[in-house]
Amino acid sequence: MLYKVDGIVIRTIDYGEGNKIIVIYTKEMGKVSVMARGAKKLKSRLSSVTQLFTYAQYTYYKTGKMGTLNDVETLKSFHELNLDIFKSTYASYLVELVDRMLEEQEGSAYIFEQLVASLEFIQDDKDPQIITHIFELKMLELAGYYPVLTECISCGSDLNNSTFISASLGGTLCNKCSSKEQYVKKINARALKLLQVFQQMDIRRLGKINISDPIKNEIKMIMREFMDAHVNINFKSRYVLDQILNYHQK
């Protein structure tokens, strides 16, 4: 059967001397794997259109578990992402989130649109860290882990200006309940407000971002704890990103 889908290359695997297997996150069918024959050869018409982050319309023929790529019409190459190590690594983390948190043919048209917008904004020099945290929240929700950030996760009462949070419990706590729990920390009120906004935000509507470094660092710490507590995947690109950031901060 012949399929035609809009998708983004989220992983590439060399196969044999001249072929590639590309994992595409599609709007219509979720995550699919396709054999691109000859794509490793420099003169192949498939060489450039099977690169990581490429957004295109892919036509492939499928009879068994894996399809064979027939034709590609590029919609956006995102070539500029690969020219900047920071942008490339943040973008790599986003596509790895999709690749490793979703099963084959599992997907969401909404997450697809969020991913496209995220890559566009990172390429256009919007703050990649903030974009990443918003996208992490979308992926947490898709995976069934929706952090409770507007009420007490323990008793359900209003926070009443309380700024306590527990990643292991999955959200915020009122003053009374926070005193009963062991793994609780205080969070800056500004950081909590931003997390509440990010959780409801459609990335496609993201405007100008101007957040101080201390607040960004606190949001990063909280999001890292949420991801580690509820997803528990050793993301290779996140490790690389940490190494790059640590090196440039020295």
Explain what this protein looks like in three dimensions:
The chain is an alpha+beta fold. The protein folds into two domains: 2-77, OB fold (Dihydrolipoamide Acetyltransferase, E2P) (Beta Barrel), CATH 2.40.50; 80-147 and 183-249, de novo design (two linked rop proteins), CATH 1.20.1440.120. Helix content is 38%, strand content 22%. The chain contains seven helices and eight strands; from the N terminus they run βββββαααββαβααα. The protein has helices spanning 85-101, 109-123, 128-142, 175-178, 189-200, 213-230, 236-249; strands at residues 2-15, 19-26, 30-36, 55-62, 67-76, 164-166, 171-173, 185-186. Strands 1-2-3-5-4 form a five-stranded mixed beta barrel. A hairpin with a 4-residue loop joins strand 4 and strand 5 (67-76). The longest helix has 18 residues, at 213-230. It is elongated, with a radius of gyration of 20 Å. The chain starts with a strand and ends with a helix. The relative contact order is 0.12. Involved in DNA repair and RecF pathway recombination. Residues 1-78 form the DNA replication/recombination mediator RecO N-terminal domain. Keywords: DNA damage, DNA recombination, DNA repair. It comes from Chengkuizengella axinellae.
